[in-house]
Amino acid sequence: MKVLRGELFIDIAWVVVSAWYIGVSMHYPPAGRLIPMVVGIAALVVGVVQLIGNFVPALRPFTHQRNVERVSGDRVSALARNPDALANSPTAETRESMAEMNSTSALRSQATETERSENVRQWTAILWSAGLVAGLFLFGFLVSIPLFFLAYFTLQKNQRNWKLAIVSAIVMGAITFGVFDQLLGLHLYNGLIFTSLAG
Known about the structure:
By secondary structure, this protein is mainly alpha-helical. It contains 8 helices and no strands. Residues 67-73 have low confidence and may be disordered.
């Protein structure tokens, strides 16, 4: 089974970031270490299973939700390789064979289109993830997390919803500040720009 590079890249990045997050959370104060460690370990386990699913065909329906469709019928394949065989077939059989070939061709075309849209979706996810990481690096957690949710639900093609965008940005901003910064005292990274302005 073909391994898509976009999927493989996302799965490797998932494992690397999860492992890095576990390493970072080990330096948190004891009171604030438990939740990030649980989240990090769970994410790492999911990432490893996803990564293995790229190379083990039996796991792919569970890890990547791709329906594997096999082209049925050696007869159709044989007719596709030898179109002259149709000329020697009875009329009814010829029509049946042609219908099978057309159906197979339509399935292949649909599979190709599905694969294209899947690749676009994967690269879109990579770009959104890269944007979030860049935002965290430049502006820090307190600004980037709510802005990410606001941007995602207003700019994403199938997710445009202003109410959901505003509510999710407020909720995620409150959780980031109230729980992680104030309650757990994690002292979240302020970002390169704000750190430079403060210094």
